[in-house]
Each structure stands twice: as C-alpha cells, then as structure tokens.
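Example record for the data management plan.
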Amino acid sequence: MSPAATRFRCVHLSPLPAIDRNDGWDIVAGFAARPRTLPCRYFYDARGSALFERITDLPEYYPTRTEASILSACADELAALTGACELVELGAGSSRKTTLLIEAYLKRGLPVRFRPVDVSESALAESGQALAERYERLSIDALVGTYEQGLAALDRPHEGRRMLIFLGSTIGNLEDGETQAFLKHAAKALSVGDFFLIGFDRRKDPAIIEPAYNDTAGVTAAFNLNVLRHLNRRYGANFDLGAFVHEAPFVPELSRIEMRLRSVRAQTVRIPSLGIEARLATDEFIRTEISRKFEPETILEPAKAVGLSLVNLWSDPRAWFSVALFRRGKTKA
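Corresponding structural encoding:
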C-alpha cells in the first residue's frame, strides 16, 4: 500500500431512517407534486458527475471560475482568520476549488484533515486519491452520502476547530424553507467558535445568468437528461430520453433559474419499483433543479437566525458572486 493510500479513506454512510424512509421516497413525493419534480441529487451518478465537471469549464458557466477567483484571492486571509481546522465540504465533487484553501493552510504549516461529503463515490475516490498523492501532510476521510447523512455522521463534540464548506452556490438549490432547515441542521454540527464558508451566486442581468444553464455545446442538456437515464438504470423506469427536451428559464419573480425537462408528447411514465405510473401531457415539464440568485442579506439573515455571525464577505469586482465566512456563536440554534 502506498503512503498516499494510507491517508485516504472512503466510508459509505448507512441510510438514516429519518431521511431515507425507503429508497426513492423523494421521487414518489416529487411525482405527486405539481409541477412534478425530481430531486437534484439524482443527477450525480458517475456519468452525471463527469458531465457536471465539463459544465464548470464551459465559457458560459461563470459561477465556477468566478468563485475560484474569489477563493484564490482570499484563501490566505481566510486561513489566517480561522487558524488550523478540520475542513468538511458538503457536495465536494472534484474539490478543485477547495484545493485552493487546502494549499493556503498547508503553506502556513497548519495541519489539515479534509472530510469531503458527496453522493458520488467515483468523484470522491478520484479527487481524494489525487489529493492524497499531491499533499503529503493532508489526511482525507471521504463520506459517501447526502448532506444530511454527512452532517449526522460528524462527531460531536469534536476536537479542535471545524469549518463546514458549502461552495458552488449549492445553497441556491434549496427553497426558502429548506434553506432555513439546512442552516439549522448545519449549525448543529458546529461548536462555538467553528466556521461555515458559503459561496452564493448573486442577482444580476438575466442575460448573463441564462446562458450559463443553456450552453451552446449542449452539455447542460445532457447533464439534465442524464437524471432520467440514472432512474431507468437504478429503478427500472421507462423514461424515453428522446421524448424530453432540456429547458432552463430564468424566473424573475423568484430570482432563480429552473432546470426543467419538458415532455414533447403525451406519454405515460412508469417506475414499477416505486409504484409510479404518471401521465404527462404534451409540454408538461418535470422540474429537476432550481438555482436561486441572492442579495447578500438573503443569506446573512437566515444564517444569523441560527447563531451564525458574519466574519467576512468576499466578492468579485463585478459583484457576480460572493463567498461568506460565518462563525458559530453562543446563540442556541
């Protein structure tokens, strides 16, 4: 076994009764809703994770490179503000942006334990092994599971300081009520003095936002349709990918992008293993994801309500994107 292999560990988290009452329950709930929805976590099988990595490199997709530029500029300052701490990244994927932070801590001679959480085992394995080989002083304990499972699996109380990391404006995938519940859950994984780093996309001209989700190369369309392929394989569904088209309009009154799969004809969708048989009309859509665009106070106020106080806020020169560092106070969440 190589020295790098001893510093990388990957653990599968067992389903939690309160979260996975039975496999696929969230699909059943989504198909019962109007409009019908599919949870965005089903994007991320091995193919979906690879497609998303391609999306982040597209010229139209500004969020990844803009957030990376912010993190590159503030990483050293951030490491100085927090000191040595365990880094826990929710929805880690390839962890490319988090690598900027890891390097800043290591350059300061600070020990780093990295705990990436993601539903894609392939993404965690590939990135975790690469990081372990690249950085000799880095230990990695990857957790395969949902955000909720990852947060529940974290030891508490814990030794030393902890920083939760939630980048990519993934918080924009949550509705208002879900955001508050998530922040409350996350705050419980932190002790007084711990940190929470959140990246979020900001409100701006829709002419800038919409192309990021409707790229000319069709990669986002393939990523969106892949959720149906995933459900066909995993649950024996009968989705005909040729009977759906990708759409991602900006909805001004909700300040968000809505990723949709629109049915091009009347059809019946069946997922026998989940007891689903649904009739879709022509032009009826299934919403697969939302991506909200924020003003800073839309993040700061719910964070404050669960005992998280703002330490610093960094933005790019055009104010397209922001990264906020919060600290857990004594207020009980």
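Summary line stored alongside the record: The radius of gyration is 20 Å.
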